[in-house]
């Protein structure tokens, strides 16, 4: 392509979920209500945990943070999608697109790590109940939450740094309602196949790591519960046998 014919893309066109105007009008109230339910539900959880002293424990503190992150994660792209249902010109600036990419991967990565932290909290509760108050104190919880935010930020930054360096000169249509990274990369003026694999691998490593840690945590929890159940059953049988012996 001749360098003189290149024009830098300053905005992208979002094609949305569908092209039918009737379908968009039908989907508008549905997604609006779902978004309101998400907001109201998460805000209610946050306020309830903050105002109720009985819920000031590590488990509910982590749930409070998770609700906060989930509320912002759903707010990154959903309002834009809802307003685009009634717009004929569905555009987003290059800066706005990069903000979406950064925010989605930041809150998404943070939420995945928070789920691992919550699984660790349940592991300590069930597998090491006598040491729970020592292990999961306030300082430890704050440190784990800060770690999750750091991992989410580093993951999001690694994704955005690659995209902002790619040259975009057209086409500028994204076949989605938001700036999805694989679709944005396809619009670059260079061969972006290797970049796409690299960024997918980055997201895949984080996702698989969180999944494996979650699987290990809940496996330990299930094994502990099973052993406790067997021990409880054995004690109950021993007690019952002793009572029968006394009666006879």
From TrEMBL:
Major subcellular location class: membrane
A GO term, aspect molecular function: olfactory receptor activity
Cellular localization per UniProt: Membrane
A Pfam family reported for this protein in Swiss-Prot or TrEMBL: 7tm_4
Transmembrane segments: 25-49, 141-168, 205-225
UniProt domain G-protein coupled receptors family 1 profile: residue ranges: 41-248
Origin: domain of life: Eukaryota
Entry keyword annotation includes Calcium: no
Keyword Transmembrane: yes
GO cellular component: plasma membrane
Keywords: Disulfide bond, G-protein coupled receptor, Membrane, Receptor, Transducer, Transmembrane, Transmembrane helix
Family matches, as PANTHER family: OLFACTORY RECEPTOR
The protein's name in its UniProt record: G-protein coupled receptors family 1 profile domain-containing protein
Species this chain originates from: Muntiacus muntjak (Barking deer)
């Amino acid at each position: 392509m001749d360098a003189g014919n290149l024009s830098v893309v300053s905005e992208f066109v979002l094609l949305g979920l569908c092209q039918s105007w009737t379908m968009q009008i039908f989907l508008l109230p549905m997604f609006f209500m779902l978004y309101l339910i998400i907001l109201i539900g998460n805000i209610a959880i946050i306020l309830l945990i903050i105002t109720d002293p009985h819920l000031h424990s590590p488990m509910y503190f982590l749930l409070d943070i998770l609700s906060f992150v989930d509320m912002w994660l759903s707010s990154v792209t959903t309002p834009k999608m809802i307003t685009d249902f009634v717009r004929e010109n569905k555009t987003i600036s290059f800066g706005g697109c990069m903000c979406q990419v950064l925010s989605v991967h930041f809150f998404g990565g943070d939420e995945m790590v928070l789920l691992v932290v919550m699984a660790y909290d349940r592991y300590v509760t069930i597998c090491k109940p006598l040491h729970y108050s020592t292990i999961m104190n306030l300082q430890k919880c704050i440190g784990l939450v800060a770690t999750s935010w750091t991992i989410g930020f580093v993951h999001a930054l690694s994704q955005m740094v690659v995209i902002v360096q790619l040259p975009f000169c057209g086409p500028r249509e994204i076949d989605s309602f938001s700036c999805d990274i694989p679709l944005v990369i396809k619009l670059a003026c260079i061969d972006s196949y290797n970049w796409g694999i690299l960024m997918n691998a980055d997201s895949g490593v984080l996702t698989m790591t969180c999944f494996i840690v979650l699987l290990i945590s809940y496996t330990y929890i299930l094994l502990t519960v099973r052993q406790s159940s067997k021990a409880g059953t054995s004690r109950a049988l021993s007690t019952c046998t002793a009572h029968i012996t006394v009666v006879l």
